[in-house]
Design a protein that fits this description.
single chain; 178 residues; mainly alpha; 2 strands; elongated; two-stranded antiparallel sheet
Length: 178
């Protein structure tokens, strides 16, 4: 077997194969962790269907649903494939993802600015995994949906309606006594 600078070709191939396998296992672990935390946050916020967390693209739709915002920014991903202006679409999409994550953090009673830290290179990637872990496994209560302002109007009953209710109550009371 030929020797190339002290390494055999077989050793180089084995090292390359081991590196590729390490990357595949790392990718699978990251995917499983991300999907699991997203699904747990969806269940915590009572957003259905939580299984969307396991399907690419649908998991982004689930994030938009958890944030209670529109889903259409997902279409910006298509624009990322356009040469020369694809980066603009990518940045616009990233802004929407940060806003969605902000809203989800606020729903789970966490500071909304936490997702902005994801923008820090390398540290932000690590923070994203920590953030989703906090959102998934922290025991804080989910913020209730804002109730629509409803005017309560005092309804006054007319005398015949009040008399009819009283007579119904009296009949029901007599039946119970028997």
């Amino acid at each position: 077997m030929a020797v190339m600078d002290g390494f055999s070709l077989g050793a180089i191939l084995a090292l390359g194969f081991a590196f590729v396998m390490f990357l595949l296992v790392l990718f699978a672990a990251i995917y499983i962790y991300s999907a699991l935390t997203l699904m747990l946050v969806a269940k915590k916020t009572k957003t259905e269907p939580a299984w969307f967390a396991w399907v690419p693209i649908l998991n982004i739709l689930l994030l938009a649903k958890m944030a209670r915002m529109h889903w259409w920014p997902i279409l910006l991903l298509i624009g990322t494939f356009i040469p020369k202006i694809g980066t603009l679409f990518g940045v616009a999409y990233l802004v929407f993802v940060i806003v969605w994550m902000w809203k989800v953090c606020e729903r789970l009673s966490k500071p909304g600015w936490w997702p902005i830290l994801v923008l820090i290179p390398i540290v932000g990637w690590i923070w994203m995994f920590i953030l989703w872990g906090i959102l998934a496994w922290d025991d804080t209560a989910v913020e209730a949906a804002p109730a629509k302002a409803v005017k309560e109007e005092k309804v006054t009953e007319t005398k015949p309606v009040a008399k009819a209710k009283n007579s119904v109550k009296k009949k029901a009371a007599k039946k119970k006594k028997r």
